[in-house]
Each structure stands twice: as structure tokens, then as C-alpha cells.
Write a structure and sequence with these properties.
The protein is α/β, with parallel strands linked by helices. Helix content is about 35%, strand content about 20%. The chain has an eight-stranded mixed beta sheet, with helices on both faces. A seven-stranded mixed beta sheet has the order 11-12-10-9-13-14-15, sandwiched between helices. The chain has a seven-stranded mixed beta sheet with strand order 17-16-19-18-20-21-22, with helices on both faces. It starts with 15 loop residues before the first strand and ends in a 17-residue tail after the last strand.
Amino acid sequence: MRPPSDTHAYPAHWEADVVLRDGGTAQIRPITADDAQRLVSFYERVSDESKYYRFFAPYPRLSDRDVHRFTHHDYVDRVGLAATVGDEFIATVRYDRIDGQGLAATGPADEAEVAFLVQDAHQGRGVASALLEHIAAVARERGIRRFAAEVLPANTKMIKVFTDAGFTQKRSFEDGVVRLELDLEPTDRSLAVMRAREQRAEARSVQRLLAPGSVAVIGAGRAPGGVGRTVLRGLLDGGFTGHVHAVNRRFPGEWKRLNPEGIPAHRSIREIDGPVDLAVVAVPADQVPSVVADCGEHGVQGLVVVSAGYAESGPEGRDRQRELVRQARTYGMRIIGPNAFGIINTADGVRLNASLSPRLPAPGRLGLFTQSGAIGIALLSGLDRRGAGTAGVSTFISAGNRADVSGNDLLQYWYDDPRTDVALMYLESIGNPRKFTRLARRTAAVKPVVVVKGARHSGSAPTGHAVPATGIPDATVSALLRQAGVIRVDTVTELVDAGLLLGSQPLPAGPRIAILGNSESLGLLTYDACLAEGLRPLPPRDLTTAAARDDFRRALAAALADDACDAVVVTAIPWVGDADAADLAGAMRGAAAEAAAGGAAKPVAVVHLEIPGLVEALAAPWGAPGAHGGQEGGEPFPAPRIPAYPAAERAVRALAEAVGYARWRRQAAEEPGRVPQYEDIDEAGAAADIDVLLAPSDSTEAAPPGGPRPEVPAPPPVSLSAPDAQRLLARYGVSVLPAFPAPDPDAAVRAAARLGFPVALKTTAPQLRHRADLGGVRLDLGGEAELRRSYAELTGYLGAPEELRLVVQRMAPRGVDTVVRAAIDPAAGAVLSFGLAGAPSELLGDTAHRLVPATDRDAAELIRSIRTAPLLFGWRGSRPVDTAALEELLLRVSRLVDDHPEVVGVDLEPVVVAPHGLSVLGAAVRLAPPPPRTDLGPRHLPSY
């Protein structure tokens, strides 16, 4: 943090690291009085043309008055931000609040003049676009709603920055100057522009790591063995197509090459002639800072830090890790690690194995990301052992402590990577669940994303992972992943099982599964497994143990041609005779090839028991023995590779995941869902109510003469009173059944008379609220005598009236008691939850969740995804309830918390859903200052 430069404390929360268009990074921060020399040096490096565009006249140097003006800000009416690389400015932006006549002003004026200046060497990197996002967010925070900018017509680059931003704008031309006015309220288009830029930049930053032209291994030992030398050996043995350098400060001065590898040897990366794109750092942690500095000065683009001794080792290591990230970003570099296993890219033009893996895996269509080196080894080994040809690896990243590059970055890269068809991820922590689910949803719309999450029940992230604390239970994480179309599995074995199927087979059109094979018993086990996974198996077809290869081929061809079948499971056991695995594999692959050629491609999985060589034959390249099929005397078809499983349950589970994912993808394409717009919602009125309810007290300390204004402390969270909560909810069309306090029997009678009998008498004390099992509720009280008797019973049994906080409420129509909640998680944002009231949600955890804003499709799925949902739809002859009204209530609550981030909690309990309509009997609302919503503000890299 830096000292204040004028009258307001330095706003450290405006600092941000951003990824630029070319994949490099820069820091954006407020300009302070200490930046005077940096500003002068920056201005000296700007061309005369750029200076002319900024000031509309020749302006060769800044005067002392200019420097003072551009470095002294109050951070409210005058704000300046700088983009920096290293310790130097590469761009600046500032705004000055103005009034209607264009003169300097203070609040409540809500317009500001904005101007940029970008160093010529950094133009075209997207610096100005990033600065505009951040200065706009700052302006909105300070009550500014519009930007005005005057630009010379020849300054087409800056005009494009404004026009491409997506904000609502006006454009005029007067006195030879283009005047632009931007409404700073985010729009769908501005958000889409920001996210598209984010995707391109972050994908490019990963691409720079995965496809370097040259690699330096820093810490390569003088003798074979050790971590650095292992990485070096992997690069060379894998056939890396670029240049490789070995770096070790202890190399003798006369060494020019490292033998027996025969590659250039250097004592420092500074000695290397020419660029180095990627550095693998394998030195002790205390030596890493000097290595990073050397890399930054040499222009290295990215680092893979395999060194340990960081956050996984305790508080000192955590501080060391933060400093590592800060130092690397200062130079515009991104980091894999620390404590990383490494990265792999099998592309023919790259063949990069910058990892501790002993060899480059077979190329294929699977992208792998893991936060654990041990799990990374297991994944690579599992894929290789089970037939790498079925679905090999496109890219592999084992990020260790993932202090910088994370799974989110890889989703950005894989989204439009033509070499990756399936994304497999092992995650132990999710630093930004809201962003992860957004990116996963977008990626899952075009290719499967399969996730296994470790540390599900430990209650915290692994020690090496610096992520924000989150209160989201694992069940909620699962629900949010399902909403995003992510396939979540429980084990690494299931991750490989699903990857092999999805990477080699077409998606199934439905849940109907044909089963055929030479074992009746194995067919029955497969049938039972299908039922257990919610699939619809057809009766198994037993080919008997005498079945030959042609029998399998004809049976599989018939199943694939059957319109009543969506997928096929072939079961096989060892047979008596001299037929071999290659023959059987060729028969099955031939049938699949013919079906695909005839437009009837369907997924096929094989379950086998101890048939040596079958896995390999099913995965062999086309043209290998048994790897092709065709008609007698005809040309062979390219034979699809088929995944094989040693147990029916594993094959069926992978197939069930594919069926569920295919269904989600079809629905997402056909019915993407929308957020309804209700005409009776009073968003402005709700905002005004919230401002009043959160208004600070009048005791705010005044600023001393000439001194800085003290920061106003954020007001504490507010639990609204019942009337305030009901009024706020009513702004969004949510009516709460009135309830009147009953401090004594006479008050209860008066309340009942006002409401009309029959009524309910119930306690609202916190320890008794929603506890029907304790007898704190009396229903259907039809008259005064019955009401007084119930009052006496409750106060005699449970306590004094002032302890019970009794209320009288009109009876609602009978129905199903449900619970609707919305809460803000610091990492995930707003989460909408639904369940049945009482034991189902409280005891059994039968609650469903969706991220806000929820669409109409989300609301419909939400109420149908709990296990007790049949109670809403006429279970055992009961009348179905009004689920349409329930869905509308969920959508209205979603809109409330999405429109007003100050609403940090809404609890509606119980919500009685009747056959016609519903009644909200209890409501609680909590307000707090808007929490940080890391996925909705200007783009930036995480900082923990």
C-alpha cells in the first residue's frame, strides 16, 4: 500500500493484476504523489504523435504544475490509474468530475471527463481497454454515471477503445473534435465484451506457456539425476522442437555444453543469446527470487516452478509464495506452481515435456489439469496402461500450489483449442467458484468437462492452496457444477473411465442401452448396473459361450442399427478355442465402423473379464492387426477405437455420465433459459429502501482542517424487522402473510378479529422458530374461546409471552411446506436454495441449489431435483401443488438478490404451496454493504 496523495486514503482495493491481449500481465493501480518521477520518465518515452493526440497540440514535456496535477488526486472527484510493468508506467488514465458546463465539480455531479495515454511500445496489447474497465468501475463506486471524452478524428485507436467497450454511448462531432459520451452502467454487451477479452487474453497466456520456442531449465544439475536434470531429460527424450538451455550458477566457467545431452550450458539465463520463452525453475526456494529477477530482465514469458518450500510448508512459505507471484507479475510473467509437477503439450509442432514425467504421453484429445503431482502421475499412467490410443493426451498441466495459473485459465484455453475434445480436471480447491462455473458452463456447451474434487470433507483447502474462505458445503458445490453441465465423479479411476469413453465415442442420444455378449451372468450384472444408474437397459442378448467373432460382429451391427437403442455395452469372457483378442476387437471395431459410415454412430463400451490383449487391440491405431474392419472384398472403414472396462459397474457409470451430459447439452442448446422480466418489480424503490436501511449514522467523524478525511467504517450487517422485510420483498412482488404480535390474550383476540377467523397462533422466539416438533404452533383456531385456550396452553407449557414472542396469523390454504433461501457466499456469490421444510432439508440435507441469477429453466430444475420432489407432484394420490407459482417465487427472490448485492440473505420459511397459489408465512432479510463480486467487476487475476 502507498501513502495518500491528497485528501483521501489510498484505495488499495483498486489495485489489480490483469492479463493483456498478448498473454502478458500488467498491474493497474492508483497514481500517487510518489509517482512523479515515474510519470516524467513515462512521458519522455511517449512519441510526439501520441502526445499530440492526448493534448491536441505539441506538448514535448510536462511542466512541474502538470506533474503535480497528474499525481495528486482526492480519489473521488479526481482519480488517476496507471498500468505498470516492472517499476515503470506503460499507460495512464484519469478522470475529473465535471458539471453540466464542463467545469470541475464535486458530487452530486455524476459526469466526468476521461483521458488516456499509452506508451507506443505497448499499444495494441489491450492496455487501454483494461484501463477503461477499471476506471469505469472506480467511477461507478464514486457516484459517476457518465464519461465524456474528446478525441481527435485521426486518433482511431482510442476511438475504437471507446466504441468497442460495449457501453451505451453517444457520439458527436464539433470544432474538429469527436465527442463521446459513455453511460457507465454495465450492459449485456459490455459484459460480453469484457468476458470475450478475458477469454482471449487468458487463453493466450496459457498458450505462451504450452508452446514455447525455447526453454531454459534453471537448476539442471552438473551430474545426471535430480529434479532439474530429470526435466531436462524429459524435454530431450520427448523430442521438443524448440531450443533447450541448461542453467546452473555452479557450472564451471569453461563449460559451454552439458554432456552427455550436448545442449548449451550457462551459469545465468542472462548469458543466453536470444529469447527464452519458458523457464523451468528447479532451485531451492531461497534462490528463486534472484532467478525470477534474471528471467524478468531477460524477457522470459512464463515460469514453471517445481521448487517446493512455499505455502505447503507453513506461514513463512505462504508469504514466500505471495512474494513469488508479486515478483513474477511485476515482470509480466505467469507462473505454473510453485511445487508443480510440470506441463506437457503433445502437439507435433511442439512436443513439450517440461515435467517430471519420464516420457511424453501418446498424443490425443484429452486435456488434463491437476493440482497434485501424484494424481497427475496416476492419470498419465492410467491412460497409458488402458490403451493410450483410445484417447491420448493433448495437454497436461500439474499446477501444484496453483498460486497463479489455475483451472480457470485452462478452461479458457481449452474452450477453443481444436486439439482438445474433453477436459479432465482434478481439483482440491476452487478459488473462484462463480467464475469456474461460468467458464465450465461455456466450455461444457461445446465439449465435456469432467471433474473429481479432492478435500471434499476436510472443511478446508490443502495447505499449499491460498484461496478465499468459503462456506459452501460440498453438496452445494456439486449442485452448482451440475448446473454448469460439469460431469462430477468421485475418484480418479472414474475420471479416467469417463475420459476414455467421452474421448473416443459419440454422445448417446438417450438412456436406452443394448447389452450383448457371451456370458449371461455378466449381461445380467450389466443390466442391474444400468438400472442402478437410472438408465433404461434392453433385455440382455446372450450369444452363449460358443460365440465366435462373426457372432459378435453381427449382434453389434444389429444393435447399432436398432432405432430403439442409444448405446451398446458388449460383455466378453474368455472363450474355449484358438480365437484371439485381435480377432474379437477387429469384429467389434468393424461393426462400429460400418454403423458410423452408415450414419448410425452410437457409443460402444466393452466389459471384459481377463482377456489378454483385448484392451490394446481395441485401442490400436487403424491399420494394426485387428484394428480395422470392412466387408469381404471391400475397402476397410476407419475403425473407431473402443474403450474397455474390467467391471460392468465402471463401464455403465461412465456411460450414465455421458447420457446425463448429452441430455444437459441438448437442453442447453434447445432451451437455454431466460431471466424473466416482471413488470411489477420496483427496483428503484427497493434500492431507495436499502439505502435508508444501510445509511450510516450522523456521528461520522468530520475531517480535520487540511487533513485527510477519515475512512467511514462500513455499517454492520442489518437483520431487518418484519415490517421492513415485508416492505422490501413486496417491491419484488413477494407477499408475506401478515402476522400481528400477541403479547397478551386480549391482543391476540384483537389481532384475530382484524384478520378474521380461523387463525394460527405461533411462537417466533429464535429457539422455537420453525420447530413444530416442540408444539409451538396452534392451527385452525376458529373462535375467541379456542384462541384464548391455546394461548394459555402455550404460555403454560413453553414460557412467558415475552419469551415466546407470540404472533397471530391468518390460516393459509393447506399444501406442502417448503423453504426458499438465498445467501451470499464470499467466493461463489449469491446462491438460491430450495427444499421441503423440516426434516427433509434439515435432517437429510435434501436441498437443491443454483447460482443467481436463476433462469426459468433453473427454477424448474431446482424444485424437481430434490429427492422429495414427488410430494409436489401428486405423490400417492395427493393433489399436485402449484409449482408454477413456486417457480415464480424463486425467480423473484433471485432477481432481488441479483439486482441488489446489499441483500446478503433471504429466508422464506415456511412457504406453503397449495394446489392453487402459495403463502409465505415467515420471512427474514439481512442487508450488508455490497460484498466483493469478483466475477462481475473489471477483469483481474486473483490475489489472495
